[in-house]
Amino acid sequence: MKKNKIIPEEFISAILLFVMASIAFINVLSRWFFHLSFAFTEEITIHFFVWMTTLGIAIAFERGAHLGMITIYEKLPKIPKKIAATISAVMAILLFLIVDYYAIREIYMDLTLFHMESEALRIPQWIYTIGTPIFSLFIFKNIIKGMIKEFRHIEEEVK
Q: What is the residue extent of each domain of the chain?
């Protein structure tokens, strides 16, 4: 019998989704009963959605659910398959390194030069931006984990 273990990416996503749904529900009730709309709810929901998207990318890499050209890939022999899987993983890592570079650069500029704050809650903007490089650590972990899983799958196909 297989144990259900808690996957951090999924757990954090579930918490973020719960908070987003709760905030949206409270805002709907506020509009209905008090004819007031809380401006901060949109701000929090949008930024949490970005964080959830980053976590969703990590989950997709772990499950092997990212886009790929499997029609060509499946016809390749063992060695070219491993090369293609390695190239795919390296390109994905490079992509998210570039994303992280620009996110960290924006955080640095917010901390040192601009001191930007969010419009509704007046929270420093870097607090929202820091989620991208932090949650992309899950992406890097799952890209490598997915590549190892793919290598095992290739070895099992040969046997």
A: 8-158
